[in-house]
């Protein structure tokens, strides 16, 4: 048991209490954000913003610039998504409904993925991070997360697919970087993301059936 504990948390002996508390707090608000997202609740954004601010600071301190960029983007897309989800129609219901991706969305996602990979690669080259093997994986994950967050802001159901794939790849990578609490948090994210996908799918199907009956 002690061996398992040491394997998972031995890296924390070199961390300050403040950083451990910040990581735990960022994980809690991040978890709340994903739960609210699965419920299609606008509270996904205020809780997510708090989490991204914490993680942006932490990753900057750890010189993990790829992860930091992801969280800066999360912050921007959270503000953008919050504004979109807040818009109401004349009947006081949300104007933005859960939808499937269109051909136009697919083209936009490809553009976002390619541009994000190029941008993060440029950052890694500038900071000489491509000396590490995980930097190549980071660039790919960043592209997935950038696309996923944009689709979430647009309330497209496929956002879950991109986020799930990114989370699964990120779990061992983040653990390797020494953030065990965050890697455990990503396991939780992945589980809730599967639930969120099926919840959104049910709501989308129910709305389509209702519109067909009218």
TrEMBL record:
It is found in: Cell membrane. Its main location: membrane. The keyword Transit peptide does not apply. It comes from the Bacteria. The chain crosses the membrane at residues 15-36, 43-62, 68-85, 106-127, 133-153, 160-177, 183-200. InterPro entries: NMN_transpt_PnuC. The keyword Metal-binding does not apply. Keywords: Cell membrane, Membrane, Transmembrane, Transmembrane helix, Transport. It is a multi-pass membrane protein. Pfam families: NMN_transporter. Belongs to the nicotinamide ribonucleoside (NR) uptake permease (TC 4.B.1) family. PANTHER family: NICOTINAMIDE RIBOSIDE TRANSPORTER PNUC. Required for nicotinamide riboside transport across the inner membrane. This is Nicotinamide riboside transporter PnuC. It comes from Flavobacterium suaedae.
């Amino acid at each position: 048991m002690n061996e398992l504990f040491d394997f998972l948390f031995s890296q924390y002996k070199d961390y300050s209490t403040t950083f451990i508390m910040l990581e735990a707090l960022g994980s809690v608000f991040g978890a709340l954000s994903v739960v609210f997202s699965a419920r299609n609740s606008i509270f996904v954004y205020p809780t997510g913003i708090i989490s991204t601010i914490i993680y942006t600071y932490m990753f900057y301190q750890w010189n993990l610039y790829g992860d930091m960029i992801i969280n800066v983007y999360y912050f921007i897309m959270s503000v953008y998504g919050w504004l979109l989800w807040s818009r109401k129609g004349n009947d006081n219901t949300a104007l933005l409904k859960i939808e499937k991706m269109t051909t136009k969305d697919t083209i936009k996602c490809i553009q976002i993925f390619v541009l994000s990979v190029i941008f993060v690669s440029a950052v890694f080259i500038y900071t000489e991070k491509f000396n590490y093997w995980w930097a190549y994986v980071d660039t790919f994950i960043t592209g997935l997360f950038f696309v996923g967050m944009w689709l979430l802001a647009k309330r497209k159901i496929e956002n879950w697919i991109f986020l799930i794939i990114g989370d699964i790849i990120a779990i061992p990578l983040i653990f390797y970087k020494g953030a065990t609490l965050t890697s455990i948090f990503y396991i939780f994210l992945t589980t809730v993301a599967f639930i969120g996908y099926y919840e959104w799918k049910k709501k989308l199907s129910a709305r389509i059936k209702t519109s067909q009956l009218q």
